[in-house]
Amino acid sequence: MQSVVLKGTKDGYELILKETASVREILVDLKQLLEGLGEESEKGKDQLHLNVQMGNRLMSEEDKNDIIKLVDDYENLVIDNFLSNVITKEESAKIMAQNNVEVMSRVIRNGQEVNVDGDVLFFGKIHEGGKLIATGNVFNMGVIEGIVQAGFPDDESKLIIGNLHTAQQVRVGEQYDIVADRPIEDSEKTVVYVNDLHVLSYGKIKNLKEINPKFFNRIGGIE
């Protein structure tokens, strides 16, 4: 069996790599395959876009670059993506962190900074001068008198939900608001978000579908 098979799809073409083949075998078979494919592409003068399907295997960046260099020899052929059914441990840990909701019940005192990967459900208290910084969303069920940030460092799609009227400052991504300058309503149903004009705004949970449709669908909707 050849180590590389060409398959047509509705989106273009896939190069399917045999999972047990060595990179050397793949490069030899790929060169032979591309010679014929390049000739056909030359006749039609259309650029062919290829996705490389790796199946249940991972390839190093060096191996991927060897394949890209080989394809680049044929000006009418271009690789769009390398696709795999598996991911690295590092990628897995990152995804888990991003989708994890950490439950936190602690006191964050003046001068302390607590960082969270992913979402955080906060039941504690942040004193003035303390900071809670999350890469994901922040759901506040505690007391915030300091600074709270969602979407660190620059993700403006995240939200802060909960009572924030005693906070010093609220931040989403790179946008921030000093609460003392613009008091927030005393309500646990407050939603802090960045609007389409990249300005920090305030809304209500009942309007979450309009504020952030993706997040609304993610949590199954709130009626």
From TrEMBL:
Gene3D superfamilies: 2.160.20.70, 3.30.160.540
Residue stretches making up the Septum formation inhibitor MinC C-terminal domain: 104-194
One BP annotation, GO: regulation of cell septum assembly
Record domain Septum site-determining protein MinC N-terminal: where: 4-82
Coiled coil ranges: none
UniProt keywords, alphabetically: Cell cycle, Cell division, Septation
PANTHER family to which the protein is assigned, alphabetical: SEPTUM SITE-DETERMINING PROTEIN MINC
Family to which this protein belongs: Belongs to the MinC family.
Quaternary structure note: Interacts with MinD and FtsZ.
HAMAP family the record matches: MinC (MF_00267)
Function: Cell division inhibitor that blocks the formation of polar Z ring septums. Rapidly oscillates between the poles of the cell to destabilize FtsZ filaments that have formed before they mature into polar Z rings. Prevents FtsZ polymerization.
UniProt name for this protein: Probable septum site-determining protein MinC
Taxonomic source organism: Apilactobacillus kunkeei
Chain's gene name: minC
